């Protein structure tokens, strides 16, 4: 029987250099899409997938994330006193989302190293990894789709999307084969990091959603750090392939790279247009905006 997925790891200790100067003193993960920080979208997605324990890998200067998911007694008391019940509900609901634990990554030594920081907190069970700057807008939350795929296979699952043309050279790329009878699953043979488009084994890119079996931790520990002392998660998963089946999963939904300025702007516009309270007026304003 496959084990239940209960824990989700959020690597959030990176330096966010693509978003400077905003990220000099503010964590990238706290940038808001309309009015909600990026990391909260991810945590809500993990909770919707059935996770009850959230592990956030943080670093220096990232304390506002902890405050965000904590109670805010002064704010709550003030809102209550003024009868602002809807706002009170919003403020309180964030701290009730899940049990959240924090672990520090002392130096940004790569995504694989960040995941390794969660080893003790995860223990010997399969777990999810969500990169908070990949925001997936989907009818069924992306990680929920992936947990269902994990329940079918009992194996590690890598979130994947088909990208067009040259774009594959910006991603990890799957060397994979279709799985009969399951149109979204791909059996992974190998992975290539940022291949030239002409040499890419497929157009199936790896995105910031993973379900991994706990064997990944010992494999990450055995990796030799690459350039800049970084441990790559992809190298750990490549090692995992020698022991276990790994699948790609083409999720249903639309992904935004909100860690990139242009991607963030596009996501902001799309999310604002979808909002009942803001959408109609924002659409009207956009139409009248002289381009
Ligand atoms: P990114 O490469 O998108 O984030 O890593 P970054 O390094 O912060 O951003 P840029 O490229 O300099 O703009 C994906 C996720 O992995 C985390 C980041 O915080 C981000 O959420 N990460 C990355 C770590 O937690 N530790 C690391 O050493 C590297």
From TrEMBL:
Residues 10-268 form the Nucleotidyl transferase domain. Gene3D superfamilies: Spore Coat Polysaccharide Biosynthesis Protein SpsA, Chain A (3.90.550.10). CDD domains: UGPase_prokaryotic. Keywords: Nucleotidyltransferase, Transferase. Belongs to the UDPGP type 2 family. It catalyses: alpha-D-glucose 1-phosphate + UTP + H(+) = UDP-alpha-D-glucose + diphosphate. The keyword NAD does not apply. It is an enzyme of class 2 (transferase). Pfam families: NTP_transferase (PF00483). This is UTP--glucose-1-phosphate uridylyltransferase. GO terms for biological process: UDP-alpha-D-glucose metabolic process. The lineage of its organism: Bacteria, Pseudomonadati, Acidobacteriota, Terriglobia, Terriglobales. It comes from Terriglobus roseus (strain DSM 18391 / NRRL B-41598 / KBS 63). GO terms for molecular function: UTP:glucose-1-phosphate uridylyltransferase activity. Its EC number is 2.7.7.9.
